[in-house]
Amino acid sequence: MSKHKSVIGLKKRKGSLECCDIYKVFKLTKKPSKELPERTTSQPLELIHMDVWGPPPVKSKSGVSYFLSVVDDYTRKVNVMYNKKNVFKYFLQFQAMAERQLEKKIKIIHTDYGMEFISKEFAENLK
């Protein structure tokens, strides 16, 4: 950072830092994780993964403490919706947008069976 002057006021130190042996061994055995798992779907909206996450240890600046993630298995596109209370409302918005844009219907929804996904509204909509 001091070499490229990316931090104001950081003084340049002379000399070099030596890595410890454990660090070198760890770096040698670390395997790259760039491969994505094989797709199990053949088209968008065939399988949607949904999960609610939160609360984080620290709230965001806007006060958001939960979010709903909606991931299409085929495209790997992630849609994030910031509210735990309105999961069904956000899902309906996502469903309408995705089905209108792609001219396809959502076939399968995968969740962790969280309470926010278990409601009469969800059941009626998914029939």
TrEMBL record:
PROSITE patterns: INTEGRASE (PS50994). Residues 40-127 form the Integrase catalytic domain. It comes from the Eukaryota. SUPFAM superfamilies: Ribonuclease H-like (SSF53098). InterPro entries: Integrase_cat-core (IPR001584), Retrotran_Ty1/copia-like (IPR039537), RNaseH-like_sf (IPR012337), RNaseH_sf (IPR036397). GO terms for biological process: DNA integration. One of its GO terms (molecular function) is nucleic acid binding. PANTHER family: TRANSPOSASE, PUTATIVE-RELATED (PTHR42648), TRANSPOSON-ENCODED PROTEIN WITH RIBONUCLEASE H-LIKE AND RETROVIRUS ZINC FINGER-LIKE DOMAINS (PTHR42648:SF28). This is Integrase catalytic domain-containing protein. It comes from Araneus ventricosus (Orbweaver spider).
